[in-house]
Task: inverse folding
């Protein structure tokens, strides 16, 4: 949890590296332009699995010919044995709903500590398919559920059963067989708390690594299931004495199939409620970039690889399908950026500093952030050790000794972005965030049109800072020697704000520079930021409040564990295109 | 019923939020209850005792400073629960002890003082040694003390039951909590000292060492928390007060 001296001295102090300024990095539009990178949690997890050669085997496989039933995988790592338990049930098309308020799913699953006995399996069977309506114990790390992509699933079963390979073009439209609609961990529904996972299970001690592992296992199961159904259908369709037409899926196509994900507003409060964690994630990413800026040697091989990655990223973006107008325009701008970068630096260059500066002058935010991700790909040795420092102790203490005058200076220094908001302007408080009585789903309401503003969640950080600043300033004029201890004792309603401001003022990043109550607020940026840290791709916004995306596309398959691994599944291309490139 | 620590904390936060606690106070209150329960000190039972009065704090006056000098402070909490005021009072004591080496804080008219242990532990972690002392009850008095050394992670806690027939109760002690903080002296406390001096009216002394408290924590982290179903239901039922009714329009606010 505490950073090694070599890292903390690179972040702060005389020997610190040239990190990008907070005003630049924490601007919400830039966070919303981030992409997956070598430090993303999925990449980190897959590296660990491949390097440590986890043994993942089918322990129970009880699926009927239509793919319904129970499956248990056993996962043996160097440290421990886990079980991944999956229930596949029939779901009528009309009951298929990706929203959090749904109550039935095609698949439900759990990641469990140790071996699963018959008795324990029954307990899981009675609870896991119910998801939020069920309860589990502290042996369970993760609960999740997924719905089929009806378009792709049926098509692929039919194709394989006919002895044909699925069309890559079709898979490029929707690159998955299942979409997860929720992945719960960290103590939800009775599961093991993060404190247990982090301290007891080294295999999953990085942020969201158990949750990401479940998604990876779901991806692998989806491939197993689709082949299983196709095989049985082909046998059924074959005439008496005839040979089945079934063909297993081509490995390159398999690798190109990921897992879909729908993410809604629920992810947005997380970023505001865990500012120390977000600070750390951003710090490590920015530190990786700063290391490359200073220490990344530029030579012929690196330039060549850089140009290849620019081309790959442009093709990847071209292959990204979305109906959203804004995303389409962003993708188009980014492709142009990548082409501009490639043309400008075709003949080589001598420093990354110049390339980064050039991109800030000539590229969109999307393009600039893609460049950052590409740079992180080029220097694994400068980047990968930082994945061990993405966890942080999230406790916040008030600093009672801080003189109130100093506190005001801290606000002026670190929260100018919040003080710049004019809260007299009605549009600045046009929205409020609340929890609905429907499964406590986070929602956004219009302040002057919808009931519930008095029960809003405290996500309006900028407004809270403004109130705190004004009252502290007034208090100081009457009590010039008072400390924060006095101020909070006499203004108990500001306790949370004072605590947050003091703690965040010690962080390099952390506070997202946005007024979340504003009429023009785009929560999509928050979702996109967190999803980029997870490592997803193929962003496809469905409104300004939820987004579809793809996880683990291009990741190695289970059967490839133990084989040579280059960790080069960044921005994976459709197989045929890849072959041509 | 089995729940995780994070579930309990989230439910408690909603519960206190719904009863009018300020944001910082409902954050603290949930942490204080969870801390006791997590460390084997019956936080949920203590909270259950306070539950019938949970709504009353919102009508009470905020804590006021009765007396203050450089190394002492007296705060009147006006019969609020310690869940709703004690963390700020400890901040004042911490502040004065860092300034002067040692400080005392007396908090009067404060209920559920057992919850001070979380705030006391925070001070210890931050390099200030703390002793707390309080009494509870009238017919049968329980006497409590807890102490933590500077830089330590877990306190020691003692409780004794006093037969009031043989004991002259100091009425000033009623609902009062005394805190001593020091950056200069490592403070300890022990109710056993009174037994040793020949006082017969202490019937039973319970001592929970910092080692036992640490062990209790490990158990909770491993297995989670068991909570009586009626209490869990009550917490969640009260917490429903923060939820907003659903409508077609509100569903659009979730992206539907």
Result:
């Amino acid at each position: 949890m505490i950073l090694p001296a070599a890292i903390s001295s690179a972040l702060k102090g005389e020997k610190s590296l040239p990190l990008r300024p907070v005003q630049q990095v924490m601007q919400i539009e830039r966070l919303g332009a981030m992409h997956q990178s070598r430090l993303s949690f999925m990449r980190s997890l897959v590296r660990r699995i491949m390097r440590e050669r986890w043994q993942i085997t089918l322990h129970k496989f009880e699926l009927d010919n239509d793919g319904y039933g129970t499956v248990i995988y056993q996962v043996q790592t160097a440290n421990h044995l886990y079980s991944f338990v999956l229930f596949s049930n029939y779901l009528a098309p009309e009951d298929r709903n990706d929203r959090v308020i749904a109550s039935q799913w095609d698949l439900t699953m759990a990641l469990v500590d140790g071996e699963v006995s018959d008795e324990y399996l029954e307990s899981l069977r009675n609870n896991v398919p119910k998801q939020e309506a069920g309860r589990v114990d502290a042996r369970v790390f993760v609960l999740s559920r997924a719905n089929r992509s009806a378009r792709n699933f049926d098509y692929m079963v039919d194709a394989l059963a006919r002895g044909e390979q699925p069309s890559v073009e079709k898979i490029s439209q929707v690159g998955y067989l299942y979409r997860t609609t929720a992945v719960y961990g960290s103590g939800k529904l009775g599961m093991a708390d993060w404190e247990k996972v982090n301290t007891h299970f080294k295999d999953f001690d990085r942020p969201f690594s158990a949750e990401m592992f479940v998604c990876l296992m779901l991806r692998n199961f989806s491939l197993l299931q689709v082949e299983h159904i196709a095989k049985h259908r082909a046998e059924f369709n074959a005439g008496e004495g005839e040979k089945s037409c079934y063909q297993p899926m081509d490995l390159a196509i398999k690798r190109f199939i990921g897992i879909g994900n729908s993410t809604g507003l629920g992810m947005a409060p997380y970023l505001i409620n865990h500012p120390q964690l977000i600070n750390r994630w951003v710090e490590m990413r920015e530190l990786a970039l700063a290391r490359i800026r200073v220490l990344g040697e530029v030579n012929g091989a690196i330039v060549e690889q850089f140009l290849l990655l620019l081309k790959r990223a442009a093709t990847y973006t071209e292959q990204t399908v979305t109906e959203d107008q804004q995303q389409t325009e962003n993708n188009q701008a980014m492709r142009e950026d990548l082409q501009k970068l490639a043309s400008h630096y075709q003949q080589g260059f001598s420093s990354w500093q110049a390339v980064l500066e050039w991109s800030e002058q000539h590229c969109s935010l999307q393009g600039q952030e893609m460049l950052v991700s590409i740079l992180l790909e080029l220097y694994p040795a400068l980047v990968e050790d930082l994945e061990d420092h993405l966890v942080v102790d999230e406790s916040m203490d008030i600093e009672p000794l801080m003189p109130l005058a100093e506190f005001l200076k801290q606000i002026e220094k670190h929260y100018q972005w919040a003080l710049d908001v004019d809260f007299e302007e009605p549009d600045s408080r046009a929205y409020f965030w609340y929890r609905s009585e429907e499964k406590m789903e986070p929602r956004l309401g219009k302040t002057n049109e919808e009931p519930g503003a008095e029960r809003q969640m405290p996500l309006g950080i900028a407004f809270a800072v403004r109130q705190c600043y004004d009252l502290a300033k007034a208090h100081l004029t009457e009590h010039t020697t008072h400390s924060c201890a006095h101020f909070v004792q006499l203004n108990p309603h500001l306790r949370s704000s004072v605590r947050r401001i003091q703690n965040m003022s010690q962080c390099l990043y952390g506070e997202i520079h946005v007024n979340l109550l504003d009429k023009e607020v785009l929560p999509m940026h928050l979702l996109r930021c967190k999803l980029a840290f997870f490592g997803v791709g193929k962003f496809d916004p469905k409104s300004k409040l939820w987004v579809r995306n793809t996880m683990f596309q291009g990741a190695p398959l289970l059967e490839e564990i133990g084989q040579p691994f280059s960790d080069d599944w960044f921005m994976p291309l459709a197989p045929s295109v890849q072959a041509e490139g | 019923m089995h729940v995780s620590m994070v579930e309990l904390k989230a439910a408690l936060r909603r519960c206190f939020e719904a009863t009018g606690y300020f944001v910082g106070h409902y954050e603290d209150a949930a942490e204080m209850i969870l801390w006791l329960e997590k460390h084997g000190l019956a936080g949920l039972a203590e909270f259950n005792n306070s539950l019938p009065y949970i709504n009353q704090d919102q009508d009470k006056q905020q804590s006021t400073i009765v007396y203050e000098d450089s190394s002492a402070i007296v705060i009147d909490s006006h019969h609020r629960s310690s869940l709703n005021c004690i963390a700020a009072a400890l901040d004042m004591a911490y502040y004065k002890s860092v300034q002067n080496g040692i400080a005392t804080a007396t908090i009067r008219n404060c209920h559920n003082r057992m919850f001070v242990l979380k705030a006391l532990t925070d001070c210890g972690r931050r390099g200030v040694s703390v002793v707390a002392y309080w009494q509870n009850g009238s017919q049968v008095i329980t006497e409590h003390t807890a102490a933590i050394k500077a830089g330590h992670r877990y306190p020691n806690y003692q409780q004794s039951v006093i037969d009031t027939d043989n004991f002259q109760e100091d009425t000033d002690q009623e609902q009062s909590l005394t805190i001593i903080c020091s950056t200069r002296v490592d403070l300890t406390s022990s109710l056993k000292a009174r037994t040793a001096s020949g006082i017969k009216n202490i019937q039973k002394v319970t001592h929970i060492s910092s080692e036992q408290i640490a062990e209790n924590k490990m158990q909770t982290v491993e297995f989670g928390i068991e909570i009586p179903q009626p209490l869990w239901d009550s917490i969640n039922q009260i917490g429903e007060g923060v939820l907003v009714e659903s409508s077609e329009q509100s569903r659009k606010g979730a992206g539907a």
Summary: Chain A touches chain B through 60 residues (CB under 8 Å). The CA atoms of residues 271 and 278 of chain A lie 7 Å apart.
